[in-house]
From TrEMBL:
Pfam families, sorted: AA_permease_2
Tagged with keyword Lyase: no
Membrane-spanning residues: 23-43, 49-70, 91-111, 131-153, 160-181, 201-218, 239-259, 290-315, 336-354, 360-380, 401-418, 424-442
Designated name of the protein: Amino acid permease
Coiled-coil parts of chain: none
InterPro entries named among the record's database cross-references: AA/rel_permease1 (IPR002293), APC_superfamily (IPR050367)
Subcellular location: Cell membrane
Organism this protein belongs to: Paraburkholderia hiiakae
Domain of life: Bacteria
Keyword terms of this UniProt record: Cell membrane, Membrane, Transmembrane, Transmembrane helix
Membrane topology: Multi-pass membrane protein
Amino acid sequence: MSHPAASVQQDQRIALLKVLGPIHVWALGVGIVLVGEFMGWNFSVAKGGAYGSLIACWIIGLLYTCVAMIDSEVTSTVAAAGGQYTQAKHIIGPLMAFNVGLYLVMAYTMLEAADALVVGDLIKAVAADSGYANLDSRPFALVTIAFLAWLNYRGVFVTLTVNFVITAIAFLAIVVLFFGVQPWNPGHILQHRELLTQLPYGWLGVVAALQFGMWYYLGIEGTCQAAEEVRSAGRSIPLGTMSGMITLLIAAALTWYVATGLMPWEYLGQAVTPLYDAARLTGNRGLQTLLFVGTLFSAVASANGCINDASRAWFSMSRDRYMPMWFGAVHPRYRTPYRAIIFLVPIAISFAFTGLLDQVITFSILSGLLGYTFMSINIVRFRRMWPLGSINRGYVHPYHPIPAIVLVCLCAATYFATYLGYGASLLSIMAFYIVASIWFALHRYKYVKRGDQFTMNWPRPKDY
């Protein structure tokens, strides 16, 4: 009878397949994020009004452009599963790597739970329109997560190919809605002159809106999780990530313009499915059906990408002994991190069953924000340890260190914005990560083989 440890080591030797190209990277990044155009972003309207939400959209767009540029350079150079976690263990050290890995897992798992909540609430809203007012939304959330986990279990190529198709349909739904409301004919359908107001809570409201302004773009950094499964990291990661960011900036602008021209900010700021509601207000049944499909597909694509990314981060941590090695197994047939995928399913379902959409979103936002703060430190240290010309980089982002400085400043502003509305949540989430760090330092670190962590064929760091 073989020893379990030997079985795990045999599983580890089975590599992930290199089958993905730029469109799959685009589908992974945009697929995770596009649901933010269909829901969640509008909570920023409740904080700062319609104009405040637009200002937050562009400020946070700058934050994520810096994230995309920085991530593209480091990930195309450290081309391994785990994304920012793998970067942290190579550039900073084990404790930071553990925390970054946990940020990734929690951010994507919470986002997955929020997506499942949206699927359930959307189906419940449509059922209510058809006379079924007491429909329970939770079974739909459960089925969504379970089906997508099964799809991820079966293989990454099919998973992200499906994501590309349904994400493209969801994006086209936003474009069709934009033209459907006849923006060239102001006052006919869109009522911006009557609905738009000045900043209802002043500039402090604009700052508070930064928190949910992140929902326009949260998750685009997930493209890094595909680094070990793309055919050419130096080409696919930068191209897929930056084209994805451009797509999201366009989608965010169209979404804001349509929604604020059809709904007063007081209602828009608390709507669960704002674009679907906007389509209903046009009175066009075709647009309403299309936006139902678009909202449903965007939520499914996002949850699908989140399962992919969270499982890769958990798998990478387990493979390096930051978590139990049992989770670091690769399926012998499908070549996927199947145990990591299965393990995270009940966690996502339990948060989805709470029904607390804004709290789940806040947990995801803060976990992501902690990861972005790390990136600004990471790229500065990376450039100092391995200056340009010392190693082969797949992509070099311009204007360094300006993006890193801008990123850390915008992260600080967004922390303050979160404190204004969700101070207790901010402090409790920070406490969670501090306790997790103590657990790692006192208990788990002894299992980590420090000499095995550095897997890149690079020269010694400068001034080593």
